[in-house]
Amino acid sequence: AIGLYRSSENLISSELGEETEIVASILYSMGWIFFEMDDYEKSASALKDCLYILNALRTDAYAKTATKSFPLTQIQFRQELYKAKALAKLGEVMAIMSEYDSAIEYYEKSFDILKKEPNRNRMEMSMVLHGKGLAYYWKNGEKEDLEQAMKCFEQSLRFKQVILGFSDIGLASTYEQMGNVMVEMGETSAAVPLYDEALRIIKQVELPTQEQETDIMTMQGALCCINGYYDKGISLYSKITNIMKRKMGYQEEKVACIFNLMAKAYEKIEEHRKACKMYEECLKLRKSAVGSDHLKVASTLYDMALMFHKRGKPTRALACLEESRRIRIDRLGSSVPVAETLQQLGNISKFAAQYGAAINFYEGALAMRKELHGESHESVADVLQEMGDLMDDLGEYETAMNKFGDCLYMRKRRLGEKHEDVASVLYAMGFTLLNKEEYERSMSFFEEALTIRIDVFGVEHSLVGDTYNIMGFIEAKREELDKALVFLMKAYQIRGNIGETLKASDTLKNIGNVHREQCNLKEAVDCYEDSLRMRRSELGDKHDKVADALISLGTVRYDMSLHDSAMANYKEALEIRRDVYGDFDDRVASVQQNIGIMQFRAGNLTEAKHHLDEFVKIRRVNKTKESADYVNILFMIGNINRINGYDTQAKAAWSEALEIFKHIGLAKENPELARTLDNLLESPDPAEKQNTVIGKISVNLLGEK
Length: 705
What we know:
Layout: H1 2-16, H2 21-36, H3 40-56, H4 72-96, H5 100-114, H6 122-139, H7 143-164, H8 172-184, H9 188-203, H10 210-226, H11 230-247, H12 252-268, H13 272-290, H14 295-310, H15 314-332, H16 336-351, H17 355-373, H18 378-393, H19 397-415, H20 420-435, H21 439-457, H22 462-477, H23 481-497, H24 501-517, H25 521-539, H26 544-559, H27 563-581, H28 586-601, H29 605-622, H30 628-643, H31 647-663, H32 666-669, H33 671-682, H34 686-697
């Protein structure tokens, strides 16, 4: 077809000249065909050439050809209609190419022409408004753009209803898009009647096309997800992809959209691995359909990054975000999506302990937010809070408090004293002061946050439970154990009442810790057992939280001299952590350490040395920062070697322990202990080593946070 049009264009141009209405008509048709071939660059080029000719044509040239049956006004109307249609098609092409601002501009120019004859052009005007609405919908996902999209769709719907009535199939797509906008704005309840109306209209068609059937299933899938039936929604979306592959030809961008919907449904049920798989399928199709530098590709990469982050894969998450950032900067420059990407790069770099990179990303995001929104915008406050958290992680507590203070000032000015965002930053400030061990000041910030949250949400709310939980933790740190139990019991009751089983299990474990500190060991066991039962019920047997509960249970049972039960708990915890993290993770090492200490104290020296050697091996492989517990284990290994008559190996272990003890600064902090350790290297009595070194460095089994 393109070949024939090219030949026609060349023949007519040679006879009549290039700037004729018929050449413009051929170029317009070629633009349509290139669009159907997904060759958007050539489509845009043909349509722009068409418009150039139409703009160059002089109306008076038609005056000689005007007749009574085809007057000059009719000729002028036809020429303007051609121009409006070419502009609208060019808007559609630009939107597909993610040149959304250009698309909106072309649609507006088209609409300006059409509205000169509104009674004759209502249908065309409705189509232009629909296309303009899509451009706003796809643009940035910002509230203002979504509101503009909704206005366009509503206007389009009114024009269609005047021409077509209230049940014509032409209305269904507009109702569907209006529903999509409501979902994107988080107003899912408002989306339901819009989807229902679209479905009502389509289902009236006696013999629906394959495309109409997939539209029905898409909206039914959306309604299932809105109502929480994600598995049903995913099943419908999967059927759609199969239908498109078998019967409709593999329409890459449409299938990509369905994969995107499936990914978001899997996100909701926390099937993060499957969500990543769907995003990967979506990304592959989008790159093929619209090219690697399209803004929809950038959006998919951004969503993938968040899923990889949730799966604990920061390297892959950062790679996706970097590619997304490159596309968005090239296409959008300084803009909200770029600022959001920089902020997420900061968040995930912080999680990956790439603190220098995180600081740079946050500073970039902060500068861009200020440029876009001004110095006091909420988005600026958001970045400041993230930067405060980063400074807290780095131990830069004063800097963290300054960032939080700036954030708090902005939020109180914009939102007032009684707002959750104010409570959120007060909570963060309390945490920083907790890390500084300024418990009294910390408590005052948490109390203020608690007051706001109870005022805003009432008592039975997740955030209120969180605040009571941390306040109980602080009271325990202050050794106000009875007060700690009061706060923790409130947290436990709230979390249990609102169905937060895992959080309730965390609080129950904290209550057990307090009982253990009070030497109420039976009560501690009851709490740990209930916490373990709840975690098994929610997470299954192979999860680190289950291992964590088993360690607590094993520790308190060891305190009660229930050594066999304690050992069984620890060994189960060890197997779980090996399954979850592999053999060479520091979390595996910590369990090896505890088992080794228990076996050593029980006199099972062979078993003890095996587990303690495994602890040392893991720490060396991971190059874990040296600490007092490492010194303790090396001395214990030295003692075992000395008892077994391996004096050379014993001396090597003790010497390494003493070297580390001095290197990490413990000798300066504990000069008497340093002298004792020096003497121990020369002492022939292994019992003396056991009593002094283990007793002074590590009195109890390792207590995990």
